[in-house]
């Protein structure tokens, strides 16, 4: 699976959009981009995933560049409860279900 | 749905003792994963099962660690003998599909402290 690069930390004001970037320049055509988050002391939680089209669900939006070498997770209206570590993971379609977590981005939402 | 259930939530033991962590996956899920999380190494995949069969145990640190899945609704991770460096939070996760849509559902973790 391709490697991902994320900034170690980011801040965001409550109520503003949080835009979390992820680089995956070696991604191949059969690999999806997944986002999970981990709130302190809890297990990781699935947020969203995509292949090449932009995706949106009740939690977030995922924007994938046309060349698929990077993506951005958008939390449209961040709240204090969104403070967490956010993991961007690339996984091949044909691969097994295992997910390999990197170091992620620690998002701090402040009042 | 109760989600993935792990027990115990907290375990404090002394070096050399046997530790058994338990996991009940979500009913109907056919994949089960054991992860370990420490400050130094982050989240590490230890082993995972498909239909109760171990598929990849390359992340198991050493022979002191063993995992079993005797049926679709139960798995154990055993450490014998335990060492202080095994102190970590151990997460169990399950998923239902083998394809790209296979979201993993995590339990709340078992925090192990080995003195």
Topology readout:
The complex is a heterodimer of chains A (111) and B (115).
Chain A: E1 9-13, E2 18-23, E3 31-38, E4 45-50, E5 55-56, E6 61-64, E7 70-75, E8 84-92, E9 105-110
Chain B: E1 5-7, E2 10-13, E3 19-24, E4 31-38, E5 42-50, E6 53-56, E7 65-71, E8 74-79, E9 88-95, E10 105-106, E11 110-114
Parallel strand pairs in B: 2-11
Antiparallel strand pairs in B: 1-3, 3-8, 4-5, 4-9, 5-6, 7-8, 9-10, 9-11
Largest interface between protein chains, with number of residues from each side:
A-B, 23 and 27 residues
**Biggest beta-sheet profile of chain B:** 7 strands, mixed
Number of helices of chain B: 0
Radius of gyration of chain B: 13 Å
Structural overview:
The complex is a heterodimer of chains A (111) and B (115). Chain A has 111 residues and is mainly β. Chain A has no helices and 9 strands. In chain A, a hairpin with a 6-residue loop joins β3 and β4. Chain A is globular, with a radius of gyration of 13 Å. The termini of chain A are far apart. The relative contact order of chain A is 0.35. With 115 residues, chain B is an all-beta fold. Chain B has no helices and 11 strands. The model of chain B has no long low-confidence stretch (mean pLDDT 93). The interface between A and B is medium-sized, with 23 and 27 residues.
């Amino acid at each position: 699976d391709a490697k991902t690069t994320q900034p170690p930390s980011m801040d965001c004001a409550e109520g503003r959009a949080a835009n979390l970037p992820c680089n995956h320049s070696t991604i191949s055509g059969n690999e999806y981009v997944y986002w999970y988050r981990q709130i302190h002391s809890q297990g990781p939680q699935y947020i969203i995933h995509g292949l090449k089209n932009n995706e949106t669900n009740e939690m977030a939006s995922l924007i994938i560049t046309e060349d698929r070498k990077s993506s951005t997770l958008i939390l449209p209206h961040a709240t204090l409860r969104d403070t967490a570590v956010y993991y961007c993971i690339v996984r091949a379609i044909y691969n097994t279900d295992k997910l390999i977590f990197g170091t992620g981005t620690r998002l701090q939402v402040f009042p | 749905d109760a989600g993935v259930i792990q027990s115990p939530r907290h375990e404090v033991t002394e070096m050399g003792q046997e530790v058994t962590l338990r996991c009940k996956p979500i009913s109907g899920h056919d994949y089960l994963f054991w992860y370990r999380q420490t400050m130094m190494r982050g989240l590490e995949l230890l082993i995972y099962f498909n239909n109760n069969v171990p598929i990849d145990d390359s992340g198991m640190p050493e022979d002191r660690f063993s995992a079993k899945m005797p049926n679709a609704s139960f798995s154990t991770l055993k450490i014998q003998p335990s060492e202080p460096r095994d102190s970590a939070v151990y997460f169990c996760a399950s998923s239902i599909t083998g394809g790209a849509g296979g979201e993993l559902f995590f339990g709340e973790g078992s925090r192990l402290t080995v003195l």
